[in-house]
Amino acid sequence: MRAVITVVGKDTVGILASVSGICAKYQINITEVSQSVMEDMFCMIMMADISSSTVGFTEFADELSKYGEENCLSIHAMHEDIFNSMHRI
């Protein structure tokens, strides 16, 4: 099982490390990362393997969202099945 994690916000030091740290805390493996900085805006998409997670997906997604709110970032985690269903034509 995989999840898609998106992060958007003003670029600051440590965003990637912090999001990766939350994933590591729950044994969630980041398999792919794409990131860019456009002027001062940070944009990142991660694919993460959640099959060995030590916490429920909702709790994980909520923690990412909370971290985002505390740091003026928009962070969303979506289960891959839902992501695929939303983008299927």
Brief overview, please?
With about 90 residues, the protein is α+β, with helices and mostly antiparallel strands.
Strand order of the largest sheet: 2-3-1-4
Shape assignment: globular
Mean pLDDT level: 94
- Compute the number of helices: 3
In percent terms, what proportion of residues is strand? 35-45%
Q: Element order, helices and strands?
A: EHEEHEH
Main beta sheet: 4 strands, antiparallel
Note the gap between the termini: 22 Å
Keywords:
89 residues; alpha+beta; globular; four-stranded antiparallel sheet
Please explain how this structure is put together:
It contains 3 helices and 4 strands. With 89 residues, the protein is α+β, with helices and mostly antiparallel strands. The chain has a 4-stranded antiparallel beta sheet with strand order 2-3-1-4. A hairpin with a 2-residue loop joins strand 2 (29-38) and strand 3. The longest helix is centred in the C-terminal third of the chain and has 14 residues, at 57-70. The radius of gyration is 13 Å and the shape is globular. The model has no long low-confidence stretch (mean pLDDT 94).
